[in-house]
Amino acid sequence: MTVVSMLEKDGVSDENFRIIAGIALNYAGISLSEKKKNLVYSRISRRVRQTGFGCFDEYCAFLMSEAGAAEQQHLVSALTTNVTSFYREKHHFVCLERLLRQQLYARLGRGEELRIWSAACSSGEEAYSIAMTVMKCLSTIPNLKAKILATDIDSDVLRQARLGSYASAEAAALFEDGMLTSCRLEGNRIVMSEKIRDMIRFRHLNLLEPWPFSSCFHAIFCRNVAIYFDRETQDRLWGSLSERIVPGGELYLGHSERIAHPERFGMESMGYNAYRKVSSGGRRS
């Protein structure tokens, strides 16, 4: 019997699901209900085959062993989707443009440093889209100081992001927006310019662990992350993010994410899953 047929025959037992769900919750705060068992099978079966195990029993036994600790990150990466693209959910970049031009331009022109955080940057398209938006809006400011922090829990996608190289078909939005001044064509690939890449620092970060920085940001993109968390974990995240946004700064979430009663965290809704920090309030739940 082949590995594929064995996986199809055995599926994910209740015990295997309990192990996988426990690791996902403890490692990354991902909450998996019993209804997600089919999702777990579809996302993890490929990883089981890649690692050479014949069934979920063998794979889960390895996960629980001392040697399997490093595999837990690969498990989490397989469970979460890394679907991204340049200027995805474009309305947030419209919000960012307005923030840069109308609220921050004068302050940045006087030497204030711009700080933006892409909190789940995946393979980097979001962070590079932010950097290109900054250059588009602020290119006339001499000696502009701008830093973009781009973090993700998945070390594999971070390696891709640091390269700043994408198939030209994936970068169609750059042609549409006339942003090819920020990158160059090399064969069938788009490569980000040095100026754009120098603006970004890619770092590994688990959002549920202590954050090794104390910076506050003018804007935070934290999109399509909280959908994996339970309500209590989401509220803790909203509070922590709010504490890292300067008054008047903005937070952008994914299309299916909402903050219930944002005033609890010193924020107000701007529509389109966007929120503005209106006070120095905000709390950790």
TrEMBL record:
Catalytic reaction list: L-glutamyl-[protein] + S-adenosyl-L-methionine = [protein]-L-glutamate 5-O-methyl ester + S-adenosyl-L-homocysteine
Domain CheR-type methyltransferase: 5-280
Pfam families: CheR, CheR_N
A Gene Ontology BP annotation from the UniProt entry: methylation
SMART domains: MeTrc
Role played: Methylation of the membrane-bound methyl-accepting chemotaxis proteins (MCP) to form gamma-glutamyl methyl ester residues in MCP.
Name the record gives this protein: Chemotaxis protein methyltransferase
Lineage of the species this protein comes from: Bacteria, Pseudomonadati, Pseudomonadota, Alphaproteobacteria, Acetobacterales
